[in-house]
Write a structure and sequence with these properties.
Order of helices and strands: HEHEHEHHEHHHHHEE
Largest sheet: 4 strands, mixed
Radius of gyration: 19 Å
Strand content: 5-15%
Structural class: alpha+beta
Shape: globular
Distance between the termini: 36 Å
Number of helices: 10
Number of strands: 6
Length: 237
């Protein structure tokens, strides 16, 4: 398991030594940022530069290639102008899921609120619906499905914000505030995260459940999820 505090300290030290004040922000996202990481979790590091051109791309690559567990590193890197002009729905999840290590995002972007959260829900639902249908019909990939369920968690976080004005990072806390359909999607996301044998009937049930849920968000239908005429077994109503 990565000692993420030490890892981020080393990353920040290396970035400051190589790039100096051209770095505007360093942060951490994902399961490590939420305190829910496992041994297989990615390290979702965030670096925002004043400008991000060929020089900075080469420097960032040098920094990451010198870090331990470099094979786990993904995350987000950009220039500050690009971030300010980013899609507002995407910025909602980006802002609230990012734990600052150096600098403040509020010095670069406006804090996303209710309208950004609504956009995050609609855009996220549309992307999940399209991605899940395409995957079910063509790619048939459990890895793609796993990624789509990860995106669904972000949509549920945005939904909760729309309802309550509160952003909940922890999935266990989110489960307490979710409705029946959302709790089912959260449970299925845990299953697909913790299992490698997602195939056959289980793969189809998970895919159809995600399609049904995202379709309901797009169309404004909040009826319980039904797959092939049957309610999906899972959480209690």
């Amino acid at each position: 398991m990565v000692d993420i505090k030490e890892w981020m300290r080393v990353l920040t030290e290396k970035a400051e030594a190589l790039c100096g004040d051209r770095i505007r922000f360093i942060g951490l996202q994902g399961s490590y940022g939420r305190g829910e990481a496992t041994e297989n979790s990615d390290i979702d590091a965030v670096l925002i530069f004043k400008e991000f051109n060929c020089r900075e791309i080469d420097e960032y690559e040098k920094i990451i290639s010198s870090m331990p567990y470099k094979e786990l590193v993904c995350g987000f890197v950009s220039g500050e102008e690009e971030l300010r002009n980013w899609d507002k729905g995407d910025l909602f999840q980006f802002y609230y899921d990012t734990t600052p290590v150096k600098g403040r995002l509020e010095e670069i972007i406006d804090v996303p609120g209710y309208e950004a959260a609504k956009q995050a829900v609609k855009t996220g639902a549309c992307n999940i619906y399209h991605g899940c249908v395409h995957n079910l019909l063509h790619e048939k990939s459990s890895e793609v499905l796993r990624s789509l369920f990860k995106g669904a968690v972000f949509v549920i976080q945005a939904l909760n914000y729309v309802r309550t004005g509160e952003y909940v990072k922890s999935k266990s806390e989110l489960m307490k505030k979710a409705d029946y359909n959302e709790r089912l999607i959260l449970e299925l996301s845990d299953q697909i995260r913790n299992r490698s044998d997602i195939d056959g009937e289980l793969y189809e049930i998970m895919s159809h459940s995600l399609i049904c849920w995202s379709r309901g968000l797009i169309n404004g239908n909040h009826e319980p999820i039904v797959v092939c005429g049957k309610h999906v077994p899972g959480v209690d109503k």
